[in-house]
Write a structure and sequence with these properties.
Elements: E1 2-8, E2 17-23, H1 30-40, E3 44-51, E4 54-60, E5 65-66, H2 70-82, E6 91-96, E7 99-106, E8 109-115, E9 120-121, H3 128-132, E10 138-141, E11 145-149, H4 153-157, H5 163-166, E12 173-179, E13 187-193, E14 198-201, H6 208-219, E15 223-228, E16 234-241, E17 244-249, E18 251-258
Parallel strand pairs: 2-3, 4-6, 11-12, 13-15
Antiparallel strand pairs: 1-2, 1-18, 3-4, 4-5, 6-7, 7-8, 8-17, 9-10, 10-11, 12-13, 13-14, 15-16, 16-17
């Protein structure tokens, strides 16, 4: 079966977030997919197979299956386009644990239509402030993550969290964000998920399903440019449309190979 490593939310190799993409040519079980994801040792590996009206899509970290993953969905659409399994301009329909997701090629971007995951105000849980090592401006939470607003972009960039504390939190991860001071961007973020096997995710599409609805009313617009300030870095165009969030970005194939096991 064909397998790829694709850098998502970037136009340059070795930036953005690397994702594995495995094109399934037969039925496989969850244990096999989890083993392949552990072998790839990336934040997520996507497994995509044909269905009657589109594609099935599942995502695995090296240790667990996740319900929603943006960068590996972008990487999957990119792989299908490069392999000519999806025609330029066509909409891809992905059946996932988060319902039907679609992607569409928009010029040199791939745009994904995801559900909004609105975060509500929350008291900081035990271990959050200790894990971050700083006092946040505001704390919120949705079904996946804590969302923590910091006072400045510099606070976000300079953060050196204690992952042992964050690992104890009963959530997928912690999104840390602030308004951007870098020209051309509206907000910046970082994402820490040690409890899901990923200390810091380079670029997290699904986190922007919360970040878009969070920042749109505060900044006063629904079309936003976002930068995830991990060491690799990544750029996303975020559009908030009611209970949906459209995430757009670029991707680069780093390698393609044949999975023989």
């Amino acid at each position: 079966m064909r397998i790829f490593q694709i850098d998502a939310f970037t136009e340059a190799a070795f930036k953005g977030n690397p994702a594995g993409v495995c094109l399934l040519e037969r039925d496989v079980d969850e244990t096999w997919m989890q083993n392949v994801a552990a072998e790839m040792n990336l934040s997520e590996t996507a497994f995509v197979g044909r269905t009657a009206d589109g594609w099935s899509l599942r995502w695995f970290t090296p240790t667990v299956e996740v319900a929603l993953c943006g960068h590996a969905t972008l990487a999957t659409a990119h792989a299908l386009l490069e392999e000519r399994l999806l025609s330029a301009g066509d909409t891809a329909r992905f059946h996932t644990k988060s319902g039907l997701l679609t992607t569409t090629q928009a010029g040199d971007l791939i745009e994904m239509d995801f559900p909004a995951k609105v975060a509500q105000p929350s008291a900081p849980p035990e271990g959050l402030i200790e894990g971050l090592g700083t006092q946040p401006v505001r704390v919120s939470r949705n079904e996946f993550d804590y969302l923590v607003e910091m006072a400045s972009e510099e606070d976000v960039r300079s953060l050196t969290p204690d992952h042992a504390f964050l690992r104890r939190l009963p959530v997928r991860g912690v999104i840390v964000t602030s308004r951007a001071s870098t020209p051309g961007f509206d907000f910046v973020s970082r994402f820490f998920a040690p409890g899901s096997g990923v200390d810091e995710d380079p670029v997290t599409g699904s986190a922007h399903c919360a970040l878009g609805p969070y920042w749109a009313p505060r900044i006063g617009k629904t079309n936003l440019m976002a930068y995830q300030a991990s060491p690799r870095g990544g750029v996303l165009r975020v559009t908030v449309a009611g209970d949906r969030v459209k995430l757009a970005g670029r991707a680069v194939t780093v390698f393609r190979g044949e999975l023989r096991v």
